[in-house]
Amino acid sequence: MEISNLAELVPLLSNFWRTIPITLQLKLESSLTLLKQDHKLTKLFFLGRLEAHSISYLLAFGSPGVDLFHQRKFYYSRNGIDWLLLLEPTDWSEEWGRIWGEFTGNAGFAFKIRSLAAGSTSVVVSEQDRLWYVMHAILREAAGVPRGALRMSNEKHIVLNPFFQGLTREELVELGNYQHFRQPERPAEENVRGRKECNLSIDVFDPLEVDVLPEGKSFAMRMDDSDQLAMWSSLHWLGLDFFHKANSNVYGFCYNGDGRKNWDLPFMVEL
């Protein structure tokens, strides 16, 4: 959730049976506004809360330039006031997603990954580095936005689309009308193939429905009582929810989980 819209979007979390206490919300609005100014960020988003054994990590990310994903920075806080920058680990691996130990709340705690390869030594991963990886993985694999919310500019910068007016009620329920909140990883011609109407500046981004395995079954959707708010939840990263209100630019995503990926999903759905 972009911090400038935090007060407007937080009430919508109640649809996921979640909330942010008003005292914490006020802290976040104040401290994140100062963080944005001090670090000279163009955009700053509150990602959510990761529950550790002894405390909760509050998570945020932002970009210093026009492009949302160029030199993106990750931050965490224990109290909602003081924010620390998370540096990208020099040598990280997707295998870190298989660390199953609970986050402890001690950023210096070390986890061990045991390799099955003969003669390989265990890899030690600090909790702080693992926290960076979890944020990276959640944003890459699970965070979504409605089609049209992101736009590729003529200068090849990825920006929030200021002209986005929302999906229609009929479009809300189709997973094909949602995209990953990330830089495109698939060729543009694959992402636009099969669309009746195509706008390359917004359809260049990777769609959710064909990119996360098992295809079409990695997200669960429901509508609110008004039948105007679509709510999608990731089944890979449990606790990552995103929402969009029909015919409006109201959308966002928030995470509230323990930082562990659900590797059992292929065994939990009908393929």
Shape: globular
How many separate helices? 6
Helix share, percent: 10-25%
What is the H/E string? HHEEEEEEHEEEHEHHEEEE
Number of extended strands: 14
| Secondary structure category | alpha+beta
| Radius of gyration, whole Å | 19 Å
Explain what you see.
A hairpin with a 6-residue loop joins strand 3 (73-77) and strand 4. By secondary structure, this protein is an alpha+beta fold. It has six helices and 14 strands. The protein is globular and about 50 Å long.
Please supply descriptive tags for the structure shown above.
eight-stranded mixed beta sheet, 271 residues, alpha+beta, 14 strands
Write the layout of secondary structure elements.
Blueprint lengths: L5 H4 L12 H17 L4 E9 L4 E8 L9 E5 L6 E3 L23 E4 L9 E4 H15 L2 E3 L3 E3 L5 E3 L8 H4 L5 E3 L7 H5 L7 H4 L15 E5 L5 E6 L5 E6 L5 E7 L14
Parallel strand pairs: 1-14
Antiparallel strand pairs: 1-2, 2-3, 3-4, 5-6, 7-10, 8-9, 11-12, 12-13, 13-14
Short description:
With 271 residues, the chain is of the alpha+beta class. It contains six helices and 14 strands.
